[in-house]
Amino acid sequence: MLPARAEGYSRRALEYASAKDFCSIFHQDMDVLYWLALVLTADAGKAERCFAAGLDECIDGNAVFKEWARSWSRRVVIKNAIRLISPRPDVASPTAIHGADQPESPAEAVLAALMNLRPFDRFVFVISVLEGYADRDCAALLGCSSAEVSSARVRALQQLPREMEASRTGLPGGVPQDLMTLSDAEVA
After folding, report:
1. 180 and 102 within one domain
2. Which domain holds residue 39?
3. pTM (predicted TM-score)
4. Burial tier of 60 (Cβ tally within 10 Å: 0-12, 13-18, 19+)
5. With bands split at pLDDT 50, 70 and 90, how would you rate the model's confidence at 106?
6. What is the DSSP string of 90-157?
């Protein structure tokens, strides 16, 4: 026989999230989930499709414990963004586009900098650094090796300060590269 506390926990853990629970999460966390989709896809239209597909997937019946529903919602948005963009480590980077408009806030500067990273590097940075996934989990989601994840994270961490400066000044390239380059040891 289980102690009353363990039995209560077991019963609670067996409660699955309902469609109503997921609707509530997507409503409460709309800004965060949309921002996650936007920063991964780097396109407002694709971010909306990613967000909506994530909500549909969650509502259509996932056997997920209620306690895991919020993290599951984030994971579904990430997986939909991966399906939509198909970021690959071996795909050449599109030319970064620096808008003529100055970012009005630090948050806009960060978003602009993230969107100008190579898609694969951006996905790795967001999934591993911002979302806190382990390298092996990030690699499994992206269909690559842990070494590719590690290399992409280093590139992103080296490129982000340059992109931040470029978005702040409105000039491509921002600060000279030799002033902003971090060594692998400094990043790790």
Report:
1. yes
2. 17-85
3. 0.79
4. exposed
5. confident
6. TSPPPPP---SSPPSSHHHHHHHHHHTS-HHHHHHIIIIIIS---HHHHHHHHTS-HHHHHHHHHHHH
Same domain? 67 vs 97: no
Pick from 93, 94, 92, 100: nearest CA to 166 = 100
Does one domain contain both 134 and 66?
A: no
- What is the pLDDT, as a whole number, of residue 61? 67
Same domain as 184, residue 97: yes
**Helices vs strands, H then E, count in the chain:** 11, 0
As given in the structure block, the two tokens for residue 1 are 């026989």
Contact criterion met (CB below 8 Å) for 188 and 154:
yes
Give which of 186, 160, 156 is closest to 174, Cα–Cα. Answer: 160
3-state secondary structure (DSSP) of residue 65: strand
Does residue 131 form part of some domain? yes
Q: Within a domain: residue 21? A: yes
Domain count, the chain: 2
DSSP letter at 29 equals T
Q: What is the 3-state composition of the chain as percent helix, strand, coil, each rounded to the nearest 5?
A: 70, 0, 30
